[in-house]
Amino acid sequence: MKKLIKTAEELNPVFNQLADSAIAAGYDLNVDGHDIILTTDNEMFPTLDVISEPFKDGFTYDVTMSFPVLNADNMEYVDSAEYYIKLWLQIAKFVTQIHKFTYSETEESEI
Question: Residue 38: phi, psi to the nearest 5?
Answer without folding.
Answer: -115, 135
